[in-house]
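User: I'm writing a short report section on ligand binding and want a predicted complex to refer to. Could you take this sequence and copper (II) ion and write out the structure as tokens? A short remark afterwards would be nice.
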Amino acid sequence: MHVGIIFFLIILGSVLFHIFTPWYWTDIASNWQGMDDTITLTFWIGGGVFVAVCLFMIYCLFKFSYKEGRKVEYKPEDKKLEKILTWATTLGIAALLAPGLIIWNQYVNVPKNALEVDVMAWQWGWQYRLPGEDGKLGTTKVTNINDENPFGINVDDPFGRDDILVQSDYINLENNKPVKILLRSVDVLHNWYVPQFRSKMDAVPGIVTFYWFEPNKIGEYEVLCAEYCGVGHYAMRGGVEVQSTKDYNVWLSEQETFQDLIAKNETLEFEDNKLAKNNNINLKQDIYKEE
Amino acid sequence: MSDEHENKSGYQAQSSETIHAQSSEAITGSGSGIAPDMDYVRPAELPEQDLYHPHSFIEKWVFCQDAKVIGVQYFLTAVFTGIVGLILSWLMRLQLGFPGLAGFITAEHYYQFVTMHGMIMVVYFLTALFLGGFGNYLIPLMVGARDMVFPYVNMLSFWMFFVAVVVLMASFFVPGGPTGAGWTLYPPQTILEGTPGHGWGILLMLISLSLFVIGFTMGGLNYMITILQARTRGMTLMRMPLTVWGIFTATVLAMLAFPALLVSSIMMTLDKLLGTSFFMPTILKAGEVLEYGGGSPILFQHLFWFFGHPEVYIVALPAFGIVSDLISVHARKNIFGYRMMVWAIVGIGALSFFVWAHHMYVSGMNPWFGFFFASTTLIIAVPTAMKVYNWILTLWRGNIRINTVMLWCLGFIVTFVNGGITGIFLGNVSVDVPLSDTYFVVAHFHMVMGIAPLMVIMGAIYHWFPLVAGKMLNEKLGKWHFWITFLGAYSIYFPMHYLGFIGVPRRYYEMYDSPYMTSGVGLNEFISTAAFIVGAAQLFLVFNIIKTMKTGKKAEQNPWKANSLEWYTSTVPPEHGNFGDRLPVVHRWPYDYNVPGAEQDYLPQTAAPSEVAHTEVEKT
Amino acid sequence: MSDPNIEGFELEKGFKGMAKDTGSDQTMFKGVHWGKAMMWIFLLSDTFVFSCFLIAYMKGRSSTPAEWPNPSEVFALDAFGVPVPLLLIALMTFVLITSSGTMALAVKYGYEKNRKMCGYLILATALGGLTFVGMQAYEWSKLIHEGVRPWSNPFGAAQFGSFFFMITGFHGTHVSIGVIFLFIYCYKVFAGHYDKGKRGWFTKMKGDYVEVEILGLYWHFVDLVWVFIFAFFYLW
Ligand code: HEM
Ligand SMILES: [Cu+2]
Ligand SMILES: [Cu+2]
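Assistant: Sure. The structure tokens for the complex follow:
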């Protein structure tokens, strides 16, 4: 008796918790509404199965708890019932899989007009690069990276000259304009994740990975690293500001290009200023203490 | 070396004559006098096993070759590691719930705790406990064998495991401490500065894992061959208890999945020690280019998960098997859909080799793999769901004893179904994208492969304790133990999913400088408190065992009135050789409970057809 | 325990019979010695180990950006002043395959209880294995002399040396372990342990010529794996 009641309360509690929880997803700020919808659908179907199974179990506890001499059914198999259950389950699963795959198909096919953003990760920080007027990013190489060339752009690549460099953990994006995030890492795995955008992908050293989304809500969002990357992992944050086209263009025009940087470095060298901005890699060094 | 000497030293003098002796009386079936033809069982195919009996304390309790003692040794060693894992989880929860309260938990320490906790729980605790512990104890008893087929190798298996545990524990005391690379050990981070324990710690971990694999292989060969080649007369494959099926399939998975772990461990050790670049691309650290280059970090992930996913089922399948048996015994009803259950176990096992990359949807692998692996993953849900239906249909119209053992089984059903459903979220590629690497994942895998198997282990302890120790555990303490553990564990992990929805990433030492995540503070405090209580509640079991051993009620021969062979040994607890002079002969499956017409509500597997001719028993 | 000859029992014919026998009581593989079954399953597991190595090698080779060295130049051997590609490897392969042949004969004589022949053939197998390991050591030292290291080499992609030393080393370890056991078994055969059914030093199991066959299975496997390694490293 008690047992059945307690189990019932647990199930009831779970359902109520789900309905009234103050902890739920953040307001979505990208085009991936479909992911949220599939989650909701899965909640309905899956949650329904969970509740049904548990209630059936509880019913059995009430109905068939031990009584000396109770008549028990002796029926090792029931082919028909098993068949019905198998097909019903298969159907339910298919209903969940289909939307999942459709959205995945959108996720891996990037729209043509997406703005490419090079997101470069290291232990433990981010920096960004946007294509310049030619609309193309220059090619890069890890071994090119040094104080004068923080992104490792191939100096001979004409596309690279006008690239816009954002040497900061923060970046601005234009509202309602799809972006293709191109991820690279110079050391270990990282993952550029903004919960409000719902999307993520690992940055893997040695290759360039990508994903895309279209921000659709103006505001500031926190970037989290979502792939373990050493002791500084939890502190590897950044930020995104989604702006209207006008504000975005103002911001964009204030950014430095690779060409500017080269010129600046030349003057610096000329003045033999040894206090030149060091590589960002040292910025977060304090997080890591030698054991 | 004469025969005489051999006899003195205690060998069972068995020769090939035994085989004739047995087969000539084969027709008499269970040997109950003159039996009619209906009791015919195939003649013996095997001679009596040649057992080596121990002669000294050391041979009897330390380097023992008896699978039952080895099982207990495995069990105790695994429980020891489990306690270490539990303490580590407390420390982590202390940091997460009450950051800064325990000043000594630095970020380095936190990551070391996460890593050691995860690896210990999955490999050294659950795998060793289910296969090494329950497998060794139950397989020979349940299939009606006198021992494992190669007792000596079996003994080596345990000691190899023991050394692996010692090496693992040693890593807590080396310079730099244990590895803090996460239990997935993803390179390049694992062996680079910036990760705690990237020196000695990771080396010892890799060595320990390799030793574990070698040790496990020796045990696994024994389990497999004992089940395949050493069953007793009448014990056909489709008459084996589901426990044996679960452990068997898990062992097959382990034999085929551990190689990938071994290979990736070897390759990573070489990357670390010799500076090869299997998994290491060109890396820039602190402004300098390291000597590595050209390797593939994703290759490691494929190898790791080719092991890692079957590993999940290595833990789950024995739990499935055991819980089926417990439910059937205590619901006094045949397991529903036995054949379906067997095929589900085998099918899940086979499919589990084709889903590994569902852990890698956002790893940067070719995104087109997503379609394939999402489909295979969701297909696995079908046989798994069938098993759940069959468990609850076994309760239907049964005669359910609501005792401690049954409570753990019910707890298992609730947590397993819950965790299984969240698995469908994570398997479904695009749904996984927002959830992967968040606390939703942490909650999911704890529910499905942490708590659910733990429920089964507890149930199994209460169920088989009378067999192993000859005494009945106290029911009242058992119920307290169950309710606190179950309610506590459920309230740890059910709400935790919602932290994942907010977007809290896993493996975060602390979180609360993010404005929109402060709402999780209260929840985290609650979860941590529940975790402390659950851990402490395990003392009920310790206390119960101590009390029972001192003053407990002596167990009768077959206290639960079960059918399977382990309850029909010549003595309780069973001695070396298990079944006395004569091996049992099996005539039916182990689930004949409440057969219409039978005097008792159970029919042992050894009951001959002629003895039950008046019942409506179905032919099995 | 030797292969049991089951009295009053016959295998049923056809596919149905096979399915029935497979699921029937006591044994799944009828009449198969426990030790032999165990070795087969171990070899299956070991196959997965080598497959993982070779698949990792394929992936590593195809994804590394640097150029892969040309095997027929790297592995060439100077014979009378002319570099002959694959000469040493051809010899090694020949020796190993021959040793598989002698092993098979040893098993045959073992079952015929021909102690002498069996012993000599095992000895021959062991010596073949030893020669193989020796030649491999020679090849390693030659490569090391030429500057090939596990972490780098003068010919191209560093992964070449890494995979080469790791996989041939792992295989060589298998051969060496096999050789050690061959010598032990050779002693046991000559000392007549298998004729008398003398119990093992550690295992305390009764000796039987079936053990020679079990070791033979291992030996043939090691041989077979070599053929794959040969194909993947030297011919690709
Ligand atoms: C009540 C007992 C337990 C508590 C309180 C607990 C708590 C935790 C916590 C706090 C983490 C770290 C989460 C993070 O920072 O990402 C964790 C990780 C983990 N736990 Fe548990 N755990 C428990 C039992 C188990 C069991 C029984 C298993 C066996 C499957 C298990 C397997 C893992 C694994 C695999 C990880 C991941 C480690 C990693 O991220 O590398 N835990 N657990
Ligand atoms: Cu990170
Ligand atoms: Cu998986």
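A remark for your report: Confidence is low (pLDDT under 50) at residues 1-35 of chain B. Chain B touches chain A through 121 residues (CB under 8 Å).
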